[in-house]
Amino acid sequence: MTPPRAAPDRKGATPTLFLDFDGVLHPNLASPPQRFARMPMLLEAIGDDPVDIVISSSWRFEWSLERIRRFFPMGLQARVVSTTGPAHIGRHARWNEITTYCAAAGIGNWRA
């Protein structure tokens, strides 16, 4: 995991998007040709707006941040800044992972 970047102040901080892959950028249990098929939708949604992308996908346990960046088009790679930390077990696991990350990094403006 890349350590969270501390935001200097929540008011002026770049918005953060916590991004999952399975079921978001492609169907759950996607075959290799189907993977990241919805990337164009993400590109359209983000556009030129400043946004930091933090990977909350379980893919973070299998791939390094550097390798994950390569799944993204060149124009988005620099926006992929980190991954969330260790897995939380139990109810609302992803929510707990994201809010733990936000608390450590001082992030107040985020979406998942």
Model description:
This protein has helices spanning 39-46, 65-69, 74-77, 93-105, and strands at residues 16-19, 52-55, 80-83, 110-111. It is of the alpha/beta class and 112 residues long. Strands 3-2-1-4 form a 4-stranded parallel β-sheet.
In DSSP terms (H or I, runs of 4 or more residues), the helix count works out at: 4
| Binned strand content | 5-15%
Q: What is the overall silhouette? A: globular
Q: Kindly state the number of beta strands.
A: 4
Radius of gyration: 14 Å
Helix content: 25-40%
Note the main sheet. 4 strands, parallel
Q: Point out poorly predicted stretches.
A: 6-11
Reading the helices and strands in chain order gives: EHEHHEHE
| Overall residue-averaged pLDDT value | 87
Structural class: alpha/beta
Measured between the Cα atoms of the first and last residue, the distance is 18 Å
Strand order of the largest sheet: 3-2-1-4
Short précis:
The longest helix is centred in the last third of the chain and has 13 residues.
Sum up the structure in keywords:
single chain; 4-stranded parallel sheet; 4 helices
Topology, element by element:
Blueprint: E1 16-19, H1 39-46, E2 52-55, H2 65-69, H3 74-77, E3 80-83, H4 93-105, E4 110-111
Parallel strand pairs: 1-2, 1-4, 2-3
